């Protein structure tokens, strides 16, 4: 199966799939334009004299595209190990690498968001509760304590 996927995507045996970078870029643009349009306060998006609001309103699908890409890329090492009769990938190592990549910058982001927006006082009981909920990635269960709405995707991943 991995060989079929490699043939379809025209990729070599390396782990990087450059074709997916283009799809990832499209997903980034979809999400970025959607959020920029939402923050603009405009109800319509006019480009070259045409109302293209219907295209922009589908920007949330960029998040879905990221999830599909993640699922595919997480699944691919298992397919490769099966096709090549190798041992399965080490889940523990994956979790450690992924955690070291995401969690430190996430914590810095959360603290900077609090400090720069003055949303809450870190010294109050409400601030400590909010910080703990977000540090433990529980904001999906307690959305009223979510510091920044875009962090819901990381909470889902965790």
From TrEMBL:
Subcellular localization(s) per the UniProt record: Membrane
Record keywords, A-Z: Acyltransferase, Membrane, Transferase, Transmembrane, Transmembrane helix
Domain Acyltransferase per the UniProt entry, residue ranges: 18-155
Protein name as it appears in the record: Acyltransferase family protein
UniProt GO molecular function: acyltransferase activity
EC number(s) from the headed UniProt entry: 2.3.-.-
Membrane-crossing segments per the record: 21-37, 57-79, 100-120, 132-155
Top-level lineage group: Bacteria
Family statement drawn from the similarity comment of this UniProt entry: Belongs to the acyltransferase 3 family.
Broad class of where this protein is predominantly found: membrane
Pfam family, one: Acyl_transf_3
4Fe-4S as UniProt keyword: no
InterPro entries reported for this sequence: Acyl_transf_3_dom (IPR002656), Acyltransferase_3 (IPR050879)
Keyword Membrane: yes
């Amino acid at each position: 199966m991995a060989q079929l996927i490699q043939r379809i995507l025209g990729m070599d045996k390396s782990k990087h799939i450059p074709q997916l970078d283009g799809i990832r870029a499209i997903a980034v643009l979809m999400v970025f334009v959607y959020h920029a349009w939402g923050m603009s306060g405009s109800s319509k998006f006019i480009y070259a004299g045409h109302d293209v609001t219907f295209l922009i309103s589908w920007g949330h699908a960029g998040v879905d595209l990221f999830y599909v890409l993640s699922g595919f890329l997480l699944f691919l090492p298992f397919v490769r190990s099966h096709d090549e009769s190798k041992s399965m990938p080490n889940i523990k190592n994956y979790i450690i690498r992924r955690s070291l990549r995401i969690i430190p910058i996430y914590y810095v982001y959360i603290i900077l968001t609090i400090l720069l927006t003055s949303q809450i006082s870190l010294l109050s009981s409400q601030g400590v509760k909010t910080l703990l909920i977000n540090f433990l990635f529980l904001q999906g269960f307690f959305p009223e304590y979510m510091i920044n709405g875009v962090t819901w995707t990381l909470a889902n991943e965790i």
